[in-house]
Amino acid sequence: MSLAGAALPAATAQAGPGGGLPSFAGSVTSRTYDGRDDDLLTAGLGFAGLRRATPPAVPRRPRCGGGPYGPRRGSPGATRAGWDGCTGSEERAWACRVGQGLDATRRDGDLHGKSAPVVHGRDDTRVPVNHSSRPYLGLNSRTEHGRSALSRVEVEHAHHSDSTAPGFGNRYVPLGFSFQQALDLMWARLTEGRALPPSQVVRTVPRGGEPGRAPALTRAHVPPVPASD
Questions:
Q1: Of 88, 110, 212, 225, which is least packed with CB atoms within 10 Å of its CB?
Q2: Which sequence spans correspond to the domains of the chain?
Q3: DSSP at 112
Q4: pLDDT digits (tens, 9 = 90+) for 148-165
Q5: 0.85 cut: is pTM over it?
Q6: What DSSP line would sit under 156-221, residue for residue?
Q7: What distance in Å separates the CA atoms of residue 151 and residue 141, rounded to the nearest whole number?
C-alpha cells in the first residue's frame, strides 16, 4: 500500500462554552504532517504502522452509563449519578454534555396533530427511504394513535438531487414537481382548510432512451399526487 501525502496544517482547536478551552484539552500546538511518518491520512499510525501485522491497542473512553450516551431522565442510572450523569473527571463531564445534546435530537414521532407533508424519492441513495421517512411514518402513526395529519408521498424513480444524479435524464424523474405540488397542497390546507392527501406512492415512468437524449418529459411520466390513494 502506498500513500502520497501533502503537507497538511494541524486542526485548530475549537473553543468550549464561554469561549475558553476545557482544562483537559491542554495547550494548542501546530504540526506539519508529511504523509509518511505521522499523518492524518493514517489516523496517526504512520506509514510503518499501517504495515504492522497486529492492530494498535485502543484505550477505552469513559462512558456515562445508562445508555449509549448517558443516563436518561428518570432512569436508575440518572438516579445514581444525578440527572446530568457527569460526575467524575472534567473530560467525563464534557463527554456527557455531548451525549445529552445527541439525546436531545432523538425523534419521538409526535407532531401533536399538526399537518406535515413529506415528499421522498424512492431511489434516494443519499437519504434512503428505509432509514428515514418510512420508519418515521410508522413511528408517527404509533405515537399519535390515528390522530396523525402526516402526509407522506413516496415518488417512484425519483432521486435526491435531480439533475446531479447520473442518468437523471433517462433513468429518473424529477422530484421537484411533486415537491412543488406538496407546497401547494399545504398552502390549501393552511388557507382553505383542505385536508392533505393520505400517504401514498406516486407511480412514475422513466423517460428511457439514451443518456443525454431522453424524450421530452410529459405529465404521463410524472403524474400529480392524487387527492386519494
A1: 212
A2: 1-58, 60-106, 116-202
A3: T
A4: 999 999 999 999 877 777
A5: no
A6: TTB-SSGGGSTTHHHH-B-SHHHHHHHHHHHHHHHHH-PPPPPSEEE------SSTT-PPPP-TTT
A7: 11
